[in-house]
């Protein structure tokens, strides 16, 4: 466990809060028609692998895969005309306010709404990474989160400079957020990561219980240190999952130095921007990448790794932080 995590582990403010049902949560409860015949088999998206040793030992926060408010059971017909039951991720709107100003309404799976709101505002540059807060209020019935600060912010100007990005039509970068990367270079802290350590981390992350394995249709992100997962989050949009982790880091005082950020999504420019904004030195994904994302990673000294599956990885930037100790095993 990291020093920042140990210092704030007992804080756990978000754990005591409701996990966010949002509007019409009760109306969305499974009915007999939704659930299908109790005798029909339940088909999961994938079989959960055995939990890798050490995968859960360091995990301080993750989705509750047993929470019925996050997924529902549907009756469907398969390719043979047979009735089956499947799990489907729920979506609900969450409106985020900064003080008295409405900022955005996001579609979300519904858990950790306070952390999503806080992380969203931080990653959009509306709040600093270590914000001074008067509180975060969540109303599950209205589907509203209000983040309160003791002083006014400059969000009005940022709202006037809104730019739509490639985040599945959900991500937005406000104001001159991209311009803020000019001249920014993440520091080299002297710590080097073995590729074998990253491969072990990938195995552990793959075995963490997840809504993706239950139902699919959802993105996952994780914060880790070496081969130890610390936080795992999922949401219908990958940027929501990123923002949840940013919110948890801010609330618990977790420092970014030496941490690894993992995403199931593509390594686009906005994913790189958010990772750099969070101060994280390493970003890794099992998916592909965009040319601009790679360019920004090289510009900001971010270690960027794509197509990471097993021991095979494509290092796109920041290779000075890595030790290629698996070269012989992968045919290099």
Quick recap:
The protein is an alpha/beta fold. It contains nine helices and 17 strands.
What does the model show?
By secondary structure, this protein is α/β, with parallel strands linked by helices. The chain has one domain: Cytidine Deaminase, domain 2 (3-Layer(aba) Sandwich), CATH 3.40.140.10. A hairpin with a 2-residue loop joins strand 15 and strand 16. Helix 3 crosses helix 7 and helix 8 packs parallel to helix 9. The longest helix is centred in the last third of the chain and has 15 residues. The protein is globular, with a radius of gyration of 20 Å. The two termini are 33 Å apart. The N terminus is likely disordered.
Q: Would you tell me which CATH topology applies?
A: Cytidine Deaminase, domain 2
- Strand residue percentage: 25-35%
Total domain count: 1
User: Could you state the order of secondary-structure elements as H and E?
Assistant: HHEEEEEHEEHEEEHHEEHEHEHEEE
Low-confidence stretches: 1-29
CATH class: Alpha Beta
Query: How far is the first residue's CA from the last residue's CA?
Result: 33 Å
What is the rounded Rg? Answer: 20 Å
- Give the overall form: globular
């Amino acid at each position: 466990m990291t020093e920042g995590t140990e210092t704030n582990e007992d804080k756990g403010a978000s754990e005591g809060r409701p996990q966010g049902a949002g509007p019409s949560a009760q109306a969305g409860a499974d009915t007999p028609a939704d659930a299908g015949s109790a005798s029909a088999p339940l088909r999961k998206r994938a079989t959960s692998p055995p939990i890798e040793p050490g995968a859960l030992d360091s995990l301080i926060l993750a989705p509750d895969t047993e929470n019925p408010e996050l997924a529902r059971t549907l009756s469907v017909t398969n390719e043979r005309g047979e009735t089956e039951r499947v799990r489907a991720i729920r979506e609900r709107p969450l409106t985020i306010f900064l003080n008295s100003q409405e900022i955005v309404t996001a579609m979300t799976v519904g858990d950790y709404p306070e952390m999503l709101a806080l992380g969203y505002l931080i990653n959009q540059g509306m709040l600093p990474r270590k914000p001074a807060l008067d509180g975060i209020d969540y109303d599950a019935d209205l589907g509203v989160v209000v983040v309160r600060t003791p002083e006014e912010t400059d969000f009005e100007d940022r709202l006037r400079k809104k730019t739509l990005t490639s985040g599945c039509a959900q991500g937005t970068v406000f104001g001159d957020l991209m311009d803020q990367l000019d001249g920014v270079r993440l520091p080299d802290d002297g710590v080097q990561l073995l590729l074998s350590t990253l491969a072990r981390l990938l195995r552990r992350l793959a075995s963490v219980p997840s809504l993706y394995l239950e139902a699919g249709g959802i993105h996952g992100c994780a914060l880790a240190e070496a081969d130890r997962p610390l936080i795992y989050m999922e949401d219908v949009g990958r940027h929501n999952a990123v923002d949840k982790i940013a919110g948890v880091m801010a609330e618990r005082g977790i420092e970014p130095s030496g941490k690894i950020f993992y995403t199931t999504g593509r390594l686009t420019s906005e994913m790189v921007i958010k990772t750099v904004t969070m101060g994280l030195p390493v970003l890794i994904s099992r998916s592909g990448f965009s040319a601009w994302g790679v360019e920004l990673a090289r510009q900001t000294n971010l270690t960027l790794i794509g197509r990471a599956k097993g021991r095979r990885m494509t290092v796109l930037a920041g290779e000075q932080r890595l030790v290629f100790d698996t070269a012989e095993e992968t045919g290099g």
